[in-house]
Amino acid sequence: MTAPPDLRTLVAAELSEPVDPRISAMAAAIAGRYGPAARAVLFYGSCLRERTLDGLMLDFYLIVSNYRAAYGPGWLAAANRLIPPNVFPFAHDGLTAKYAVLSEADFERECGERARSVSVWARFAQPARLVWAADEEARARSTSAVARAAPTLFALTRPTLPPERRGDPLEVFREGFRLTYGAEIRAERRSRPGSIVESDPERYVRIGEAVLAQGPEQAPGRGSWRWRKRKGKALTVLRLAKASFTFAGGVDYLAWKIGRHSGAEIVIKPWQRRWPLLAAITLLPRLLRRGAIR
Q1: Which pTM does this prediction carry?
Q2: Is the pLDDT reported for residue 12 higher than 60?
Q3: CATH classification of 7-226 is 3.30.460.10, yes or no?
Q4: Which end of the chain has fewer CB within 10 Å, C or N?
């Protein structure tokens, strides 16, 4: 009887699946902005499931060797190190995107249980594609980091479930995404965490069974999620504030994204474009009251 593929093999195969050539070209263009500091570019998010890319905002992670090599001297390197990641807009060949920047060391940490927030491992427990790599070492290192994401979700989620549900991969993923969405300020509807799993249940069973086959894990239980929720929402606010300096048109993008996911209509005034940080601070309480974000 043939043994099932191990988790890293499954992750490597998924990361290597083909994408639209325009996505690969955009990834190479993003990497080209950073020269030798660029190590890998990953494509992730809801656009993975879309056949038509025009009019969408694509999502990438750029992995760099270190922040000083990526930015040179200046505040951007410090900002990326203190409140990772930095996020920037990008356009190429008629497509628009945003990309987040993490160092190789931070990417590895943020995919594991020592992560400062849920953001990275929650996203990379979902499907992704490794669409550009500087060399085989960079590809292998990024693959190993991504392969830590689903085990982290399982380690931190399974203790919150009744014993009879802990062995069901779909139950663990559903609950894990519900918890991680609750640990960030999100615009998506409350049904979103479950719909992620339902979009490809066979994939989540396959990955989940490989995680469970690795053996039992030890992780903090239910109480630690209260701390993650408080910290995660605070970090979201800090990242939004930082993005007002790094993301041209960031307020308009924020309004578009919230409207797309929640159905809320948000009209941005001229003064809010001139003062994006103040706009983000004043918009946030109003959006929370309206239930547009949670």
Answers
A1: 0.81
A2: yes
A3: yes
A4: N
